[in-house]
Design a protein that fits this description.
- The chain has six helices and four strands; from the N terminus they run βαβαββαααα.
- The protein has 145 residues and is an alpha+beta fold.
Length: 145
């Protein structure tokens, strides 16, 4: 399946954070990233949306993890999932968050075990929406379908 053309920011493509559109924790994470993305290097799209459906990255069916694609719309894209996705997002936010991203030194199996534990219980602990919530006008500029 061919990728949907990404918004034309530059030849490096777009950095897209894919998230569970009905998960309250995921929405909180997106809001957190949006508030700290002063350079506006990130775009966001729900896993249930057409932008993710067009992504042919060989990911498992039914994936409900956070997915980060650097260079979406290019041949040089990098796809990260779970804890690696979160840490790469923090790195790309820059500043203090780049330092936090150094948690990559923790072995991935351990990071992903903690990520999976929270992911398994996220609806019970944080809640769930019946549908994607409406973005603010500023957020809308960074959201993809």
């Amino acid at each position: 399946m061919a990728e949907t053309p990404a918004p034309d920011r530059d030849e490096a493509g777009v950095n897209v954070v894919f998230f569970d559109g009905v998960c309250a924790l995921c929405h909180g994470s997106v809001s957190f990233f949006l508030r700290r993305d002063r350079r506006r290097v990130l775009s966001f799209a729900p896993l249930q949306g057409e932008t993710f459906a067009a992504l042919d990255a060989g990911l498992e069916d039914g994936l409900d993890s956070m997915v980060y694609v650097r260079g979406y719309g290019t041949d040089r894209r990098e796809v990260s999932v779970r804890s690696e996705a979160v840490l790469r997002i923090l790195r790309d936010l820059g500043g203090f968050w780049r330092i936090v991203s150094w948690l990559r030194i923790v072995p991935r199996p351990l990071r992903d075990a903690v990520y999976d534990l929270v992911a398994r219980h996220r609806y019970r602990w944080f809640g769930r929406y019946d549908e994607c919530r409406l973005p603010t006008p500023r957020q809308k500029e960074q959201l993809l379908p």
